[in-house]
Design brief:
CATH class of the largest domain: Alpha Beta
CATH topology of the largest domain: Rossmann fold
Distance between the termini: 35 Å
Number of domains: 2
Order of helices and strands: EHEHEHEHEHEHEHHHEEHEHEHEHEHHH
Number of strands: 13
Strand content: 15-25%
Shape: elongated
Bound molecules: adenosine-5'-diphosphate, magnesium ion
Strand order of the largest sheet: 8-9-7-10-6-11-12-13
Length: 418
């Protein structure tokens, strides 16, 4: 929490206002901006200052106060309204909530109740505002069919980003029922995304970090649920909120997904700053990738954010890449070769990108990381692409054009200057 939350009190009793000030005086995350002794003054101050929190004493009878809450909600919809009351009429809580109050505190207000309520608001604010563009970048990997290397690339890209730039990287296993990034990282996480999603009222950046499992490469893993049935109650909205929160603390959030078009996967695709679509050069994969690209277009995803990766290419990859570009009518952003060292690395639980082997695939991950890093502007061509520098075919505008909604600019491909 950086900026303190602004707070305004409306209470006719100066002693009670003073008591509230006392309760908050050592709490640096709240700043009491103003106070009012009557509803009318309070209403005008709220309208003018738009504070984060309004504490309003309902008085007895409660009706005039309830009407004021309804007006406050209209003039300052982003203010959280806390009601204080003697609590003698049980129906008042319901009436206050219906009028628009977020918290109900019985007088005399205890410090614990007040701070708990304030912290709840602070966390909600953090979740809503946790994705300013200047912070991290969410990179979501998706493959329309399983077995094409989506997870392998997610794992190694996360490691390469952490290794190359020494910045904090989070890896999120969103293959909720079948994820095994924990195994591939050789980690034993105590918690999972299920624990985070089930505790959203407590989750802030710090709490979320405590649920991650750290890998020596500098990657922190938010693992898939340990039990299959724990995937079920995780709501799509929770996924967006968790990813946004991670984005506020990590330079990169690399998300591995399952090859399904369910709402939870779509949530991760929606919030992605870069969406890496993994395909293989076989016809079945290309067919499904074409259908997927059509869907992305109907979802109005910015074509700039969707980048096509072609994995398990024969060496040299030229023909495979050309065929893919012809079928998909868009440039291939990156090609990865088929490589035997993958199996050895998986058995050892040691990501290739750590660099323990003399794998050529490992070098691909660090160059791709550099290409995706927004600070990096000039990346050398991988040796196998050097001869064809500048010869990547421009995408045809044929079929794609029919679905197009936004102006299309050609995404850069593997060797082009950024
Ligand atoms: N470039 C590659 N070379 C060799 N094997 C690969 C390559 N990419 C992926 N594999 C292997 O293919 C299998 C499926 O990969 P995985 O990453 O689990 O795919 P997905 O997440 O798309 O289902 C794994 O055994 C993986 O090691
Ligand atoms: Mg996978």
């Amino acid at each position: 929490m950086s900026e303190p939350l602004s707070l305004l009190m409306i209470d006719s009793d100066p002693m009670r206002r003073q008591a509230l000030r006392e309760l908050l005086k050592d709490y640096e995350h709240v700043k009491v901006e103003a106070e009012a002794a009557d509803f009318e003054t309070g209403y005008h101050l709220v309208n003018q200052l738009k504070p984060s929190i309004v504490i309003l004493d309902l008085g007895n009878p409660p009706d005039p106060g309830l009407a004021v809450i309804e007006r406050l909600v209209v003039v300052s919809p982003h203010s959280a309204i806390f009601v204080t009351s003697d609590g003698q009429r049980t129906d008042t809580i319901l009436q206050a909530v219906r009028a628009g109050a977020q918290e109900f505190l019985v007088r005399p207000v205890s410090q614990k109740d007040l701070l708990t309520a304030v912290q709840r608001i602070a966390r909600q604010r953090a979740l809503v505002t946790a994705d300013p563009a200047e912070k991290g970048k969410i990179i979501t990997l998706f493959g329309c069919k399983g077995g094409r290397g989506t997870t392998l690339i997610a794992l190694n890209l996360a490691v390469a980003l952490a290794k190359s730039f020494g910045q904090p990287v989070a890896a999120v296993d969103l293959d909720l029922q079948a994820g095994d990034l924990n195994l591939l990282f050789n980690l034993k996480p105590a918690y999972s995304i299920h624990d985070a999603a089930m505790n959203m009222d407590r989750v802030d950046a710090l709490f979320l970090k405590s649920l991650l499992c750290d890998h020596p490469s500098g990657v922190s893993l938010l693992a898939a649920p340990q039990r299959i049935e724990e995937a079920d109650p995780i709501q799509p909205l929770r996924i967006s909120q968790l990813l946004s929160l991670l984005k506020a603390s990590f330079a990169y959030v690399v998300v591995d997904t399952s090859p399904t078009y369910d709402e939870r996967t779509l949530a991760a695709l929606d919030v992605a700053d870069a969406l890496l679509l993994v395909a293989a050069p076989d016809l079945s994969s290309l067919y499904h990738t074409q259908r997927c690209l059509d869907l992305f277009d109907r979802l109005a995803y910015d074509p700039e954010k969707v980048k096509l990766l072609l994995n398990r290419c024969p060496s040299p990859p030229g023909n495979a890449e050309k065929t893919a570009q012809e079928i998909l009518k868009r440039p291939v952003f990156w090609t990865f070769p088929e490589e035997k060292a993958v199996t050895t690395s998986l058995i050892a639980g040691e990501p290739l990108a750590l660099g323990g082997t003399n794998s050529s695939l490992a070098a691909h991950f660090s160059t791709l990381a550099a290409r995706l890093d927004r600070r990096e502007r000039s990346v050398p061509f991988p040796p196998h692409m050097e001869k064809r520098k500048g010869s990547v075919a421009a995408p045809s505008r044929g079929l794609f054009n029919l679905f197009r909604r936004k102006p299309f600019s050609i995404p850069q491909s593997q060797g082009e200057e950024g």
